[in-house]
## 1
Amino acid sequence: MRLRVLLVSTILSGLIASLAMAQEKHPVYVGARACAACHDGKGMGHQYSKWLLTHHAHAYASLSKPEAVKMAQVSGIPQDPHEAPVCLGCHATAAEAEPWERDEAFRVTDGVQCEKCHGPGSEYMDAKVMSDRDAAVKAGLRIPTKQDCLKCHYVKGSHVAVHRKPALDVDKAWEILAHPVPPGGGPGASPAAAPKAAAAAGARYVGSYASSWAAHLKYSPRASSNTRLKFHVAPRFTSERS
Ligand code: HEC
Ligand code: HEC
Ligand code: HEC
Ligand code: HEC
């Protein structure tokens, strides 16, 4: 009798464990443009446009500056800065991630993007999840602190030797960088937030990478006959790419 109970409970716990594994979703990086489907326009507080105006949006591009080559030399890095993991670690997003951890529309060249600070978005970018902070955090959303800014913004000999800029005043920079959702804002507050396109974008990613690489291929943006994907690749994105 006892043995039977033991056996049943062993089988049950095995079953529960495998179910839990099947439900575990590994978040992937979707890119700032995917966040922009909702996080732009007046109602949401123009987060995407504001970010485009920051130095973070061209942090990767800065690796093409003549100063970049000098900084690499000072650091004893023989590679082209665009290929040096050390430089990319602070000047890009998800450069160190495996290719399958990045959506096909994701671009390393977009610099220090939303997800560098807020975490990879595939599992939290659903409108329902996003509106519930606990759920979003559980799905991988991070709310950064000033301590997180300092992980990149400390005085680096290689940088100061070349451009002689003072250390960043984090308190002041925090204010400058603020991109809050305005009071009374949020989903539906502005047509520019394009909730329909956004919902489509959200649905596309959530869980699509959960179980297998095959799922990824199925949802690949290259399958252009999928109207839902056309919706996601908004005109703004396609014109930029061509
Ligand atoms: C499908 C639409 C949608 C997409 C796509 C989306 N969000 Fe959101 N996000 C929302 C909504 C809705 C809220 C809640 C806004 C409010 O009412 O304050 C929100 C809130 C947030 C918050 C604040 C959370 C809090 O509790 O303070 C952050 C940070 C955020 N989003 C980051 C992102 C990032 C980064 C991406 C891209 C990876 C992204 N979002 C993609 C709809 C979206
Ligand atoms: C992943 C590394 C990283 C993190 C985290 C980070 N930054 Fe930056 N930040 C950069 C890089 C790289 C640049 C320079 C980009 C350029 O000009 O090419 C930069 C530039 C800036 C600038 C422009 C001023 C200047 O000296 O060029 C401000 C302001 C700034 N960051 C504020 C912040 C704040 C506030 C936080 C925290 C919320 C933060 N950063 C987090 C990497 C980071
Ligand atoms: C620990 C994070 C970190 C690393 C690693 C790093 N950078 Fe930076 N870089 C920053 C930050 C933060 C800024 C902006 C503040 C400053 O200039 O010090 C910046 C600024 C720059 C700038 C000036 C951008 C401008 O607007 O003029 C260049 C060029 C640059 N970095 C190149 C490089 C190169 C090349 C490497 C690799 C050898 C590298 N960085 C490694 C964080 C980093
Ligand atoms: C350099 C880091 C950094 C980047 C890049 C960044 N954020 Fe944030 N974000 C923050 C910080 C810091 C806060 C404020 C956290 C707090 O209030 O405690 C924040 C807050 C938010 C909020 C909540 C605002 C509110 O009402 O409280 C939203 C929404 C958001 N970010 C969306 C985005 C989106 C979308 C992008 C890309 C277009 C982005 N963020 C890029 C650091 C960043």
## 2
Amino acid sequence: MRKYLLIFIVVAANCQLYGQENLNGTVPAAWIENALKGTGSVDQILEFGKLFKSKAISLKKVDYEENEPYLNITKINLDEDIGSEFLLFIGSNYANSNFYVIDDDYRIIHEEYLWLHNEHPQLRIYNSSDQHKLFGFKYLYGRGSGRWLFSNKIFRVDSGKVTLVLEFVNSSNDTFNFEGINGWIETENIQEFGGNLFVEYSYDFYLRSDLLEHLGINYEGDSYSLAKGEDITIIYSYDPTRNQMKFNDREITSEMMDLFFQPSNDSLFLQVFRSGLDKKVKNGSELDKRLIEYLRTKIN
Ligand SMILES: [Ca+2]
């Protein structure tokens, strides 16, 4: 019996870890009405936190004295039925909140913990060709010393079910890979047209100038670019059979998209950009040849 109890506790702890413990809970209509009035008081946050426990909401009032509590609710119709759904960010601090999608019958249909280091949640809503609106937010995918990666998560609601239909890099910077490849990626001008999402990508993968100095190369400039792209527009289209936003592009391939989510993965970089680097080895400068040779020897 004790053994089963232990298993139960472990499972329960895991559920909490993944932040989905309040799925299918019903939010009182009166609480939503009050929240929509926009006061966002600590009492409202505490009331919600008592009903729906999460690590984003502390139940100790003293914790709110130095933090900046956060409550932001949006009422909007997101799917084919006529009633409005609700998008809620709530937490005892703006950078540590929970995100909820609440259906028109006040049932929680999505719950997700959102840690943003020191940024506020940023809700984005994109129109679509039918009643289904795409929505999402900026998400801190990962960070460490000298590197960070924010993504954009995009969701869709269908018959009371929320699906993550797309995640792409919002902005990323990686500067601490002294021996190998550093880089940044940025997306902007995100626009919806006819149910498609247009996203403009720019990126640069480079070697740091101090590495060149270390290799005994006299080089002026902050960095030595190995692969660069500027204002490349990708079109994501909704694929109803897979319930995902898909793209098909030659300039940015799906292998490149994988690399965008794995900064400092030098061997993946060499693989993804192999043909471009081969061209540089064949037709480029002596410096191109030497540096690509250095990377290929170091990494392989
Ligand atoms: Ca609806």
## 3
Amino acid sequence: MPLLAERMSRAKPSAIMAVAEKAKQLKAAGKDIISFSIGVPNFLPGEHVYAAAREALAHDSGQYGSNRGSEALLDAFLKHLQDGGFNGYERKNLAVGVGAKQVLYNLAEALLDPGDEIVFPTPYWTSYVDIAEIVGARITRLACPSTQNYKLKPEQLAKALASKPKVFLFNNPSNPTGMVYTKDEIAALADVLAAHPDTWIICDDIYNRLVFDGIGYHNFLHVRPELRERTILVDSISKTYGMPGWRVGFVAAPANVAQALATLNSNHITSLPEVITAAAVAALSGPQDIPLQKAKEFAAKRDRVLAVLEAIPGVKCPRPQGAFYVFPDISVAFGKKHPAGAISNDVDLCSVLLDAKGVACVPGSAFGEPRALRISYTCPDAQLDDGMKRIKDFFAELV
Ligand SMILES: Cc1ncc(COP(=O)(O)O)c(C=O)c1O
């Protein structure tokens, strides 16, 4: 029998999707399940987005579109970049993809040969590892435990860049931790990056409009514009506009990188569909009050979650200031027993919690931090409070 390609021995299905799938099955079997597992914003885009999609449908050409992205979409993204404080880009610096995930996959193909080194802070978004492994890159994980607020320190970065890795991948605000770097922290890391010119810098900033507490969103390019010649910004409409299922992501990069992505697109996706493109243009150019409003709501939800976690003895949780995740250190439970099962690690804990209380969370090991679990808190408040109470009760029942 013929074999699959060797790279498929390294390809794994997303661990987050696996938990979400188990929760879905239990729900379908009639169990009372609250899912904190999947990272969806849980709101729909404004009516102007649907109106634009209907209008595009009425005038659909039925044709293939541009590999790079339609001019209208690229221009709308340029304006979005300017609103975020990124000036001086032109269409030749941009390319679209089927969500930020496909953009990141394309970037891995475009920048990493087998054996090339990619470094990123840990905890990390699961797909960084999965994608890097598929293309055969050598991964260096920079440990950023809860004791350093899950944030990368300049001296760690300097040490990692000394080996001249091909790519440094940085995610701010962070999935899974929700942590957001301050302007000073970004400036200190940018100083290190400036001193190491051999490494591409990918900034996955797709949660940049979901920042709380007035801390603001900061990027290396805001403090050191000269890094632009090797910095690649990744963005998406998924989280900002409540459109994860519409699958539109972007890159703003040096022209040769953007061209590489357009070339790769020409060999797989060809183009984004017209109706999707029109909806994305409307989201980017329409009223921007929805993300602002959502950031306020998410900050309030974060407070509800933290209030419960802080009351559980031994659970420690750095205070997230963005995205919609909380990432508590729950290692206090390891070695204990619940009537529904013994807990020796994060995977046991999530599994017993799901069986005993019907609450689905993602084990921290999916993000490289096995002392934690991830709570995605965008569900309605009543459900959120119910789920958090179940978590509190669960910890109280441990012996
Ligand atoms: C950090 C991070 N990057 C990229 C993505 C992918 O987003 P998209 O829906 O645009 O593919 C996600 C989605 O959860 C994410 O959390």
